[in-house]
Design a protein that fits this description.
single chain, 471 residues, mainly alpha, Serine Threonine Protein Phosphatase 5, Tetratricopeptide repeat, 0% strand, elongated
Length: 471
């Protein structure tokens, strides 16, 4: 049961309730309570339930049971109060007693569902949420659908949760909780294409739902279609220009699209609404770092750490700035600080390897690259940088051996690996037959081919390769 709906309190509230509440409070210290009618007692119980004062709600429910034993609502309220205080078995016994007397209701089933949910018995909780739906008033059904969907989520049955949440939105398109819970379910299933279709279909029927536009933008962002994400966030803000989360995510989308000035504008707008936040300040630092304004980048990274001293991304950002300024030793210190807060982030280890590459400790750089690759075996950026590191240090044979031994799963990683191998063999081992493999790869993915070939200057000077790149 959800007791924080203030409308329920208002249903019972009248001008004398404060006086009656005071009288009840005094009775707890020994003063006589006198007579209270059932409506007043019910109003006092509901007041305490809404306030989260379950002990007093239970005491008042006891008085109701004593004075009005023929009104089952007081037994139900007692069950709700004691279940909220953790007396789940006792609450179920009270509800069973009501059922044996033939007394049930939508609220009764919801209370049982809530108790079984607390007992982590999702199967039984789902049964009683469904029973509640069968007898619920039409205006209550969407909220019960959401409760039922959340129980499916607890059971990790996200497919059924999605099905139920769609019913909630069919019942009430303005149920924002259902909209956000759908996003959660699709995230858990990592099914962003279905999320995009779901929100697009919903928007076709409800074009002014800014929360649907916002979640559509999030789905596009997670599928890395940032152009479409920006489009969706823009529509969200057209409908509700004060919705600060959209400014934050729009800033991130522009950052991913390398449109740093637009990203800055949106992060600043987010701060205008919500005040300074460590994460937003950190992202502003990254924007200025990408724009080459290193002083401003450092200023925002330090401001970010004032608010969130353990924000690893800000420590990493300072490390990258130090590296760009030529202070490799200082850079390594900041990067290691970032790793101390997020030790299992392969991206951080990768950045550290790149910094170590600029020192005399090439063995440590090599070990660090391998550590990063062991943590994320399907990362083509780490793979590219590591092989390039080996080649730059004349470790051609080691690079070839490494690539030949590499077991790749993802097709795009395999392509990167093969391109590296072919390029090294062609340039350094003069195996002319490799050119045909490079041509095949060029047909498959010209962008990746050009990126790999550009790492090897000798290839750029080869007329056969120049002809390949121009085709």
């Amino acid at each position: 049961m959800n007791y924080d709906d203030e409308e329920n309190d208002n249903d019972y509230y009248d001008g004398n309730l404060n006086e009656e509440l005071d009288r009840f409070e005094k009775s707890l210290t020994g003063e006589p309570l006198g007579f209270m009618d059932s409506d007043t007692l019910e109003a006092i119980i509901d007041h305490y339930l809404i306030q989260g004062n379950y002990t007093k709600a239970n005491l008042c429910a006891e008085i109701g049971i004593q004075q009005f034993p023929f009104i089952p609502l007081f037994t139900l309220r007692k069950a709700q109060a004691i279940s909220a205080n953790g007396q789940l078995k006792e609450a179920l016994n009270l509800l069973s007693h009501l059922e044996k007397s033939g007394i049930t209701s939508c609220e009764h089933f919801l209370t049982k569902a809530s108790i079984f949910s607390q007992l982590r018995d999702s199967k039984t909780a789902i049964k009683y949420f469904t029973e509640a739906l069968n007898v619920a008033e039409p205006e209550d059904r969407d909220e019960i659908f959401v409760d039922l969907a959340m129980e499916y989520e607890t059971a990790r049955d996200f497919k059924n949760a999605v099905r139920i949440l769609k019913k909630a939105l069919e019942t009430n398109p303005n149920n924002e909780v259902a909209i956000y819970e759908l996003a959660f379910c699709y995230d858990q299933m990592e099914d962003f294409d279905s999320a995009i279709k779901c929100y697009s279909d919903f928007i076709n029927e409800n074009p002014y739902s800014f929360t649907a536009w916002y979640n559509l933008g999030n789905a596009y962002s997670k599928s890395e279609n940032f152009e479409k994400a920006i489009w969706a966030y823009d529509y969200c803000l057209l409908i509700n220009e004060d919705f600060s989360p959209a400014y934050f995510n729009l800033g991130n989308a522009y950052l991913s699209e390398e449109k740093y000035l637009l990203s800055i504008q949106n992060f600043e707008k987010c701060i205008e609404f919500d005040g300074e936040d460590g994460l937003t300040l950190c992202y502003l630092g990254e924007c200025y770092e990408q724009l080459g304004n290193l002083d401003e980048a450092k200023r925002f990274y330090y401001k970010s750490l004032e608010l969130m001293p353990e924000l690893s991304d800000a420590w990493l950002g300072l490390g990258i700035v130090k590296d760009l300024e030529g202070d490799v030793k200082g850079a390594i210190g900041f990067i290691e600080k970032a790793i101390s807060y997020d030790a299992f982030n392969p991206g951080y280890i990768h950045v550290l390897a790149g910094a170590l590459e600029k020192t005399d400790d090439l063995n440590l750089a090599n070990e660090t690259y391998l550590k990063a690759l062991s943590m994320d075996t399907n990362n083509d950026e780490i793979l590219t940088d590591y092989v390039n590191f080996l080649v730059k240090n004349d470790s051609y044979k080691q690079a070839v051996d490494f690539l030949e031994a590499l077991d790749t799963v993802q097709e795009e990683i395999a392509l990167v690996k093969d391109l590296h191998l072919f390029a090294i063999l062609y340039v350094y081992f003069k195996q002319e037959n490799i050119l045909n493999r490079l041509i095949q790869a060029q047909v498959k993915d010209s962008v990746v081919t050009k990126e790999i070939i550009s790492l090897y200057p000798t290839l750029i000077n080869d007329p056969k390769i120049v002809n390949l790149l121009n085709n």
